[in-house]
Amino acid sequence: MKGLFGKDQVCGVVAAETAREMRSQVRLGLRKTRTLELRLDYLTSAKERGSFLSWLRRKRPRAVLIATCRQQEGGGLFQGTREEQIEILAQAAHSGCDWCDVEIETANRIPRGKLEGALSPARVMVSHHDFRGTPRTLAGIVRRLERAGGKAIKIATQCGSVSDSVRICEVTRKRRDVVAIPMGEFGLAGRVLSLRMGSALAYAAVDKTTAPGQLSLDAMANLYRAGQITRRTRVYGVIGDPIGHSLSPLLHNTAFCARKFDAVFVPFLVRKLPDLLGAMERFAVAGLSVTIPHKETILRYLDDCDPLAARIGAVNTVVVRGGGRLYGYNTDYVGVLRSLGRRMPLAGSRVLLFGAGGAARAAAFALAQAGSIVCLCARRPERARALARAVGGQLVAHADVAHEFFDAIVNCTPIGMHPNGGSPLGSAELNCRIVMDMVYRPRETELLRLASQKGIEIISGLEMFLAQGFAQYEIWTGERAPETAMRRAVVSALDREEKLKGRRS
């Protein structure tokens, strides 16, 4: 449906220092969207701005163009006077721009009628940016923006929680003239879901990010398919802290696309679970993937739980049932059995699990049920002791690991995860036939490199990540997972990442 800004609600942000780079970004952006914001404040001189606007007048791209020349206090780079700012925007309006975005600080200093007249024939959007946080009350900001004139308003604030992100997006309720932008890492999911909640636009960087948490246009258009999201689109997500490393959005959005399932999967940075749970209904979340550090804690917030997950004491998959009831599952269990079971007989094998958190609990119960002799070692021995007792396993002190032999050693901790690196165990402690790392990014962790150097067979965490993800998809949708497409997407992403890292090193 065509909205206030045209058909494409995903707006590509064009920002560069030279007219040549701006032109290049315009062409690149137009491959994915027909709505572009032109950040004229990023151009380094009047000469560069003049050159770019001259090109714009000649070419007249078939797109909805939004010009802005933001002052520093509004998060921009422009250092001139407000009069000079308005003059630049007026030139943009006469060069073919359909809209001019004027921050509230400038708009308030110009009489309402004069602002619109100065920027005619372009329409005016008045914007508010707060890079410090999200005010408790947003109604006053909305009224202030409305009084400044214009045909649309934009509110962008730094979010310190998922709840902040929801509150910003809800400003758009029952309106078509509001652009809502939750900024920062807590706002990542909201940037995608804002369109579902009614925002007139969602911004994404063609090349250079211009605001905290801004996604790339490629991610917005291809990974999240944000322009296709409607109120009927089902919402799923991964929750954790940290969350930026997760490839779960790629895994599941690929699956939804392959099966033509009307759903989107987004990342939620969650420090405190009550913050997310209070926002789930408003974001219409239908299911969750749960990662570090919430796999055990989330149990206390569930209405019911699969008996196996209850015995494990950790949940990595949540389904929202009728009435908003939360039901938990554990698919890490499946991932462990598939990954190790393909390489070795599990019954009678002695397996050391390093760690005692949610992932280790799933592995311990899975292996114990398969007949393995489960050994536990962790930085917090009391947790390892309790888990060993629960599965009939053995406690191994860290100091003794180097003096014992195991059929397999499995790292169940986040040590080694991108971008921090590191290894939970040293080379001398790897006395075994197989080493498996639950960390999947990077695919070859430092732990796996140490094992390879000793001639030990290795299993990447990618195998477990894929297996548990396939099971999650089937729980949420009731359909068979498109395993080939999901695997290909994740492997390709890791290949690209490793090649890029190789060129940099």
What features would you describe in this structure?
The protein is α/β, with parallel strands linked by helices. 37% of the residues lie in helices and 20% in strands. The protein has 18 helices and 20 strands. It has an 8-stranded parallel sheet with strand order 7-6-5-4-3-2-1-8. Strand 9, helix 10 and strand 10 form a beta-alpha-beta unit. It is elongated.
Q: How is this structure best summarized?
A:
Helix content is 37%, strand content 20%. The chain is of the alpha/beta class.
SSE blueprint and pairings:
Blueprint: E1 10-14, H1 19-29, E2 35-39, H2 46-59, E3 64-68, H3 82-94, E4 99-103, H4 104-107, H5 112-118, E5 123-130, H6 139-147, E6 152-158, H7 162-170, E7 178-183, H8 188-197, E8 202-205, H9 217-223, E9 234-240, H10 248-258, E10 263-269, H11 273-280, E11 285-290, E12 304-305, H12 307-312, E13 317-320, E14 326-329, H13 332-341, E15 350-354, H14 358-369, E16 373-377, H15 381-391, E17 394-395, E18 406-411, E19 432-437, H16 446-453, E20 457-459, H17 461-477, H18 483-504
Tell me the name of the CATH homologous superfamily of the largest domain.
Aldolase class I
CATH architecture of the largest domain: Alpha-Beta Barrel
Morphology call: elongated
Number of domains: 3
CATH class of the largest domain: Alpha Beta
Helix content: 25-40%
CATH topology heading of the largest domain:
TIM Barrel
- Major β-sheet profile: 8 strands, parallel
Which structural class do you get from the secondary structure elements?
alpha/beta
Low-confidence stretches: none
Compute the separation of the termini in Å.
47 Å
- The Rg value, from CA coordinates, equals 26 Å
β-sheet strand percentage: 15-25%
| Tally of helical segments | 18
Mean pLDDT: 95
Number of DSSP-assigned strands = 20
Oligomer: single chain
Biggest β-sheet: strands ordered side by side in the sheet: 7-6-5-4-3-2-1-8
